[in-house]
Specification:
The chain is α+β, with helices and mostly antiparallel strands. The protein has helices at about 10-20, 30-50, 55-60, 65-70, 85-90, 125-130, 135-145, 145-155, 180-190, 200-215, 245-255, 265-270, 275-280, 285-290, 290-300, 300-310, 320-335, 355-360, 365-375, 375-400, 400-405, 415-440, 465-475, 495-520; strands at about 5-10, 60-65, 75, 80, 95-100, 110-115, 115-120, 175, 220-230, 235-240, 255-260, 345, 355, 450, 455, 485-490.
Amino acid sequence: MTWPMIKLTPDPLVLNKLRQVFPTPENSASRALAKYVNVLERLLLNALQRGISPALKKLGLYPIPLHDLANKGGRIGPQKLRVHKWLKDNQLELVQTVEKGSKFSGEYSTVKLSSLITLDDRLTVSSAAIAQIRTDRELDSYLTGEATDSRAVFDHFFPELEPLSISGDEAGFHFAPVDIDSLMAFIHWVGAGAEFGSKEKRQQILNQAKLVLAISSINGGLFPQRIKLSPFGRTYYEGLSVQNVHKELRRAMLGNCWEYDMRSSVVAWKMGYAKDLLLQANADVDVRLYFPATTLYLEDKADFMATVRYFTFVGNTTLTEVFQMGLIKQALTAISFGAKSTGIGWTDSSGGWKNPALVDILKNQSERDRFLADPTVKAFIEEQRALDDFIFGLVKGNSAELLALDFLKTASGRVSKPKVLAYLYQHAETNAMNLICSVAAQHGQVPIARVHDAVFFKSRLGPDFKQELEFTLRDATQNKYWHLSPKQLKRYTPVSIDAVHDELLHMQRIADEERRAMDYFST
């Protein structure tokens, strides 16, 4: 089988050398090489579906499991030699290893294609090709390709499913509805040269968008997402999903809808313990008095972040205000998840160097120092640590069975506080979102997608119903800090080349009529 979006062509030299060494049985060399190339095509397609970072893509590097290529790439000759090993031993390898991974750690090897093979990446959307398209039919054909090609992609990623045979959520899958016209308009917009991130990032998004389009276009507008449950409590998906794509691609996929996310969810969850913390300490139960920074963060997050941004980036005109605000948001989120405020890195178990999260977010040391020295941020960090310690203390005193779980321990066997807190939060988050979705469904509002602390509905819930959901959630969890923030998402408007062409012809006809009229009256 050939893969319509990834086509590899080895240099004829490779097949000639293989035939010289393995002349019999007839065609055995060509079949063996074809099988090996086919497996490599599959692995590259899988890598593109998972998403390749712009940095790797720019260097022509791909993360793939080399052991799969070696084991599934076939054998040849009476000694049943692995094709992968034979190619390497004879300096005819088609991929070169840049950084070796490990099948035990789950890390893929980073490879690049050798000079003995060429890649026809049919996922790439060419701006030049779009500029030459003159009709809607040509555009549709260019973006979607042949139905047989889309079917081949579908069968590769979802061999256990049959297109159009899905009547609901089958075991092991969730299905996201895709607005095909909106997605095609998005691909056209980005491919035609939209000012949208870096060139490498745009290409990564386009690769993912074309895969979603190919699969959903022959599956009744539904994109399968293979469920991958995390022991920490969240539901993830293998490969592409509404969870791990860029937010603009997600908007293009879902079309017109409403997003409701739990505002500052991890901080809100922690604050649910604040009153108990004060009671245990025999302190005044005025939470606002003892947690002023966290209270401000929850009640007026925009003002909190704007003030911190101003004093962190004072005088910096290189970064836009929007980008600066994004960095502050990332930094505060990292702190709420237990990020260290120290700027000292460390060596991990594999020998690699790791920087603290805040160092990777706020790379400029002066700006990072100003951020950490801000009185509001210092108070926020202190309050978060107090809540972390209290919640972890409750676990140590009341949940010994939780502390025995291996995945909540460090490599040395010590219980990890950040992992325990992440476990508790993600389970609380999942339970909260399950409750929201269940109550909404009882009122005829069935979610179309979920992204951890956010849920998407096709239509607006309305302020009264949103408030009812919040009251229900607060009452069920005894946490008054849960709050849903609505956001309307609008589909990408399809562009009709035919309509634009017809409009130009119509304007030309009007101009011709006016010219003839002027000629008549002047005569």
